[in-house]
Amino acid sequence: QVQLVESGGGLVKPGGSLRLSCAASGFTFSDYCMAWIRQTPGKGLEWISYISGSTKYYADSVKARFTISRDNAKNLLYLQMDSLRAEDTAVYYCARSLKPATFTWVDPWGHGALVTVSS
Amino acid sequence: EIVLTQSPATLSLSPGERATLSCRASQSVSNFLAWYQQKPGQAPRLLIYDASYRATGIPARFSGSGSGTEFTLTITSLEFEDFAVYYCQHRSNWPYTFGQGTKLEIK
Asked: Across the interface, which of B43, B46, B95 has its CB nearest the CB of A98?
């Protein structure tokens, strides 16, 4: 079955960096667009990035600090997070586009990775 | 950025009752609206997409309606597993946004 498993979360100091990975299985990874979405108790759910072919989209809140990428040979999605701030503290989910070849809705989602930015 | 406003914030109902959840967009999103269900400790799950299409495996008691700026998620005859938080989300233009959620709790 389709499975997405995030890893790489943890505690990091403000200004630091972290790279999240999302391991995909159960489908042809290269055929699907992928996304990163985060959730905080205060701001709720927030789309932060998605990758559709060679096109990448970023929320203003993370633009120039976060980078989405993928390795289709390894079935991995990445989120490189630099210059981290306290407000980046969240559970980060990776999610797959509902249909192949085009970005539409996302489902399923991974179980999430907790990132805590604190000194 | 399109703002999605969900109402009510909390809905208290009993199993077997009908639930009606609303989502209002700050500008038209056509039919580019989805509903997700989230249970404690779990990731959101897609219920409805393109305003009215049920995702695979979603029971027929869930239905979506609306277009433009006003949308409704209806759950007929609530079952215990339906008590959760529900979010609407648009993909009309970037950035995609979510509503703040409606918590459906047992009365």
From this structure: B46
